[in-house]
């Protein structure tokens, strides 16, 4: 009953008739549904996790695994996991959750703003005893998702404490593709990367990225716009960014897909992660009272058929 009251209260405070509705999503998790003339979208309060973006006249852009778990102790598999305040394993604590605690935290709805045909949903978390079990910093983080002809994701971190702190962050976006084996990722030519499938050797990207095996690469010192060409779905997804100096490209391929319980064995051909981030040497340092706002700006266009 309490959950139903919570949803009723949230709709009263944030709902917009015919445009924005707060509902019970998978696993009973609370979800904000956006349906405007320019796009449809979904974002869960669990992890401030965007799980769908469908621009008008387009198909679903994001991938969500059919095997995803939907409970508060696990991150949703797919969509846009928010990785914060560290990426991958926590260097000084093997027991710390992978990719930080933000994606398994209950965020609070802060704002819903309709501007013309776009809708921006804002959610926040603040440091408390639970976060300080893992990370001592005093912070407030806001995730703003703008659903419109573009998907704009912003992670805005504020240092609310009296001392500076460093953090890593990633918008770990899972894009839906028709066939990973015919996809090309362009825009990172000449950029150095760490190849996590080859003992973290540092290499330099030569031309476009084709995915022919498990791929897990951290591209360094780059603010480049990336074009994801998907001939099977005859579309190109362009990922631009602000205040992000690293980009991760990941596909689990066959064996890793089988090893993930919350990922279908046959799903690897239909997704690729292109992640807007600040990780490793691109960490962010905030002085007291300072903000950092990282943005990913995603748009879809028709893929010009090559002769
Ligand atoms: O961003 C790529 C990566 O770090 C891969 O190494 C893989 O672990 C992926 O993230 C998924 O991580 P997760 O904790 O969500 O299973």
Concise structural overview:
This protein has 307 residues and is mostly beta strands. The protein contains 3 helices and 23 strands. The chain has a single domain, classed as Beta-galactosidase, Chain A, domain 5 (Distorted Sandwich), CATH 2.70.98.10.
Descriptive notes:
This protein is mainly beta and 307 residues long. The chain has a single domain, classed as Beta-galactosidase, Chain A, domain 5 (Distorted Sandwich). Helices cover 8% and strands 43% of the residues. It has three helices and 23 strands. The site of 6-O-phosphono-beta-D-tagatofuranose has 10 residues, from strand 20 and strand 21.
Protein traits:
307 residues, mainly beta, Beta-galactosidase, Chain A, domain 5, 9-stranded antiparallel β-sheet, 8-stranded antiparallel β-sheet, 3 helices, globular, binds 6-O-phosphono-beta-D-tagatofuranose
């Amino acid at each position: 009953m309490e959950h139903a009251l919570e949803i009723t209260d949230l709709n009263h405070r944030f709902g917009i008739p015919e445009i924005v509705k707060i509902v019970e999503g998978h696993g009973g998790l609370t979800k904000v549904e956006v349906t405007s003339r320019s796009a449809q979208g979904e974002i869960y309060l669990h992890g401030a996790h965007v799980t769908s973006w469908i621009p008008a006249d387009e198909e679903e852009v994001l991938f969500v695994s059919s095997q995803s778990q939907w409970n508060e102790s696990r991150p949703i598999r797919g969509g846009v996991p928010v990785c914060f305040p560290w990426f991958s394993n926590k260097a000084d604590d093997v027991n710390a959750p992978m990719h930080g605690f933000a994606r398994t935290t209950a965020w609070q709805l802060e704002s819903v703003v309709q501007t013309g045909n776009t809708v921006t949903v804002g959610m926040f978390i603040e440091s408390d005893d639970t976060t300080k079990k893992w990370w001592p910093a005093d912070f407030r983080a806001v995730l703003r998702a703008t659903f419109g002809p573009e998907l704009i994701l912003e992670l805005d971190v504020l240092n609310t404490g009296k001392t500076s702190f460093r953090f890593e962050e990633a918008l770990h976006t899972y894009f839906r593709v028709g066939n990973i084996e015919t996809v090309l990722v362009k825009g990172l030519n000449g950029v150095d990367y760490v190849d996590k499938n080859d003992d973290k050797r540092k290499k330099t990207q030569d031309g476009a990225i084709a995915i022919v095996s498990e791929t897990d690469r951290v591209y360094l010192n780059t603010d480049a716009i990336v074009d994801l060409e998907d001939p099977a779905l005859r579309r190109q997804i362009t990922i631009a960014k602000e205040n992000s100096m690293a980009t991760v490209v990941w596909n689990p391929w066959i064996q890793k897909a089988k090893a993930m319980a919350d990922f279908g064995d046959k799903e690897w051909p239909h997704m690729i992660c292109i992640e807007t981030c600040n990780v490793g040497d691109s960490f962010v340092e905030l002085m007291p009272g300072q903000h950092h706002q990282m943005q990913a700006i995603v748009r879809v266009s028709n893929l010009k058929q090559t002769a």
